[in-house]
Design goal:
Enzyme class: hydrolase
Strand order of the largest sheet: 1-5-4
CATH architecture of the largest domain: Orthogonal Bundle
CATH class of the largest domain: Mainly Alpha
Helix content: 25-40%
Family: Belongs to the Nth/MutY family.
CATH superfamily of the largest domain: Hypothetical protein, domain 2
Domain HhH-GPD: 43-190
Oligomer: single chain
Radius of gyration: 24 Å
Cofactor: [4Fe-4S] cluster
Shape: globular
Function: Adenine glycosylase active on G-A mispairs. MutY also corrects error-prone DNA synthesis past GO lesions which are due to the oxidatively damaged form of guanine: 7,8-dihydro-8-oxoguanine (8-oxo-dGTP).
Order of helices and strands: HHHHHHHHHHHHEEEEEEHH
Number of helices: 14
Amino acid sequence: MSGARAEDLLEWYDVHARVLPWRVPPGAGLRADPYRVWLSEVMLQQTTVAAVKDYFTRFTTLWPTVDDLAAAEDERVMAEWAGLGYYARARNLLKCARAVAAAGGFPDTEAGLMELPGIGPYTAAAISAIAFNRPSVVMDGNVERVMARLFDIHTPLPGAKPELKAKAAALTPAMRPGDYAQAVMDLGATICTPRSPACGICPWRAPCLARAHGTAAGLPAKTPKKAKPVRFGIAYVGRTPSGEWLMERRPEQGLLGGMMGWPGTVWAEEAPAEAPPLSADWRDAGAEARHTFTHFHLRLFLRVAEIDPGRVPEGLRLVPASDFRPSDLPTVMRKAFDLARGAMETPGQRKDDT
DNA sequence: CACTCGTGGAT
DNA sequence: TATCCAAGAGT
């Protein structure tokens, strides 16, 4: 029994709460908009606050309500999400918005929220607590870390989750559960950080068992992860004489699903065979895009060519320069574009490159 | 349960 | 440069 009290954390939160675009300040009795809470929580899944801020502002400016978002075009939303990663979130975001709009609003219970696309245990609990002030047990990476340290639990994740959740449940207060949920996350983000935690100024420093044992910095323990293999691929960046780009919308399922990109080979651990989308004078761009995904490193070789607009293969399309924005592309495709454009602007050097 | 699924900043 | 990591969900 560590003796940690939710009241002590809330007192700290009342003074030190971060000011965030989706957040209602503590103590003012204001009510958070479920739409904004939901949108921010989905964006924040495995994503830093710094990366989310501008996306959140842009989305809520373009689509101020869930009904506005539900009425948006799929490709428009995917383009706005470009660069934020985990694109299944954007696909599920639209499905969820349309379900909520059809139902006339967000469900106000964890169970109801859990039935919606893209809302899992964490997000359901977070919306339930923050938007509806219910005493849900919010378990995310921050809470896991704080609990592991507070109770000096050395069991490695993910196996330790049930044990950590039990500790979190015992601490969750009936009063101000929404503020409490955000307080634990602020504590984890600003004081009880993964590396070099600032235990000296922690509101829970007295009851923290890991601090007493000097083990805080090493917790939570985690099972080692697999090494990332290297995959190889070729992408073909083609442009017509009038400046249109040859592109594809990737299939809904799988990596970068639903996003725009350059046609090319599959990405495999073996060296790829050339597979141009149409015949043209493809030449080596003289550079490769390197990009690291969650579970593999990619080395993407690039080919560039001027192409004939009259023969666009099935499944591909020509995007006029006026409609083309690199910021609408996932990062690896934007990297490929930057390198390919550089190669197109300096023609005639390929024989000297290698 | 183990794996897929992005990205950029910190170290 | 390489690794870790961040308000996880879906299969």
